[in-house]
Amino acid sequence: MNPIIAGNWKMNKDPVESRALVQQLLELTGDVKNREIIIIPPFTSLSIVAELTRTSRIKLGAQNMYWERSGAYTGEISGVFLKSLGCDYVLIGHSERRHIMGETDEIINKKLKAALEIGLISIFCCGETEKEREDGRTEEVITRQLQHGLKDIEDQVHKMIIAYEPVWAIGTGKTATPQQAAEVHAFIRSRLQKQVAVLYGGSVKPDNVDALMSENEINGCLVGGASLKPESFARIVKFNR
Ligand code: 13P
């Protein structure tokens, strides 16, 4: 399995800025082999990024979706539309959606089921808060997120990617050490019935990616802030073990 490097742009980059960023990324990563590169822009830039990356090795993902295929759900986006735009991936259960938008494990479960039916590969995010880690509850929290998120679909987890993103490491510059990440990745693997790729996310930068990717347990990275600058994202894609 090739290592997977995914860039989650969050609510950044308007369509004009998105075009410029992708054009630079295409130049900087044109020579990359043996890596899966996924770009996850805001919905409003998906069609532009899809058009620019069509003949490249860069794959496209969306940051969220609704669980119904169509209907009276004002403001929501169907996974079917994402698929028809050229998305192969969708982020489900990102910590910002859990903590800012109030997404529950039950909502996340509905979305994971819908993505499976549509044939989108979910990047299913889990991770503990700082308080939960301090209280020694990391494994308990991850177990709950996996159990409830994967209710009735655990046997299909091999069609997804798991992203371990400790909430205390997201956007804080406080990266989990490679050992801390590897420990939780091993735990996640031990809880699942099937082989699955597990990505690490949380302040991944050009200067810590090599050490993180040296851990066998870490199959790739989900990058936020550092994916917004072409040089830093390209350097992360080209990590050295
Ligand atoms: P940062 O890399 O900015 O910490 O964000 C991580 C993240 O949330 C990726 O989904």
Hetero compounds: 1,3-dihydroxyacetonephosphate
- CATH class, please? Alpha Beta
Q: State the secondary-structure class.
A: alpha/beta
**Radius of gyration, taken over Cα atoms and rounded to an integer in Å:** 17 Å
Our count of domains comes out at 1
Structure, described:
- By secondary structure, this protein is α/β, with parallel strands linked by helices.
- It has ten helices and eight strands.
- The protein has one domain (about 5-235): TIM Barrel.
- About 40% of the residues lie in helices and about 15% in strands.
- Strands 1-2-3-4-5-6-7-8 form an eight-stranded parallel β-barrel, surrounded by five helices.
- α1 (about 15-30) packs parallel to α2 (about 45-55) and α7 crosses α8 (about 180-190).
- The chain is globular.
- The chain starts with a strand and ends with a helix.
- The relative contact order is 0.15.
- It binds 1,3-dihydroxyacetonephosphate.
Question: What would a concise description of this structure say?
Answer:
The chain is of the alpha/beta class and 241 residues long. Helix content is 39%, strand content 16%. Strands 1-2-3-4-5-6-7-8 form an eight-stranded parallel beta barrel, surrounded by five helices.
Question: What are the defining features of this structure?
Answer:
241 residues; alpha/beta; TIM Barrel; 8-stranded parallel barrel
